[in-house]
Amino acid sequence: MRIEQMIEQRFVCSKCGGNHCQTKEVSMSGAGLSKMFDIQHNHYLFVSCTNCGYVEVFNPDILEGKKRGQLGSILDVFFG
């Protein structure tokens, strides 16, 4: 089961108590060379409550115990 599915099944909004959400993976560049070359190696999951709109941010690397999105980072170097 993917981490997004697990979050959606167990979700309870800490603001309003709602139990429905949407997840979206977002990639961002870091500082230094990755910013200059627009290499987006930082990946996060944004989880939005569909009832009140409150958003929580999770690091999927920590939740899954492994680095995520390495192929995409490598392709960013070659294809921008």
UniProtKB/TrEMBL annotation:
It comes from the Bacteria. This is DNA-binding protein. The lineage of its organism: Bacteria, Bacillati, Bacillota, Bacilli, Bacillales.
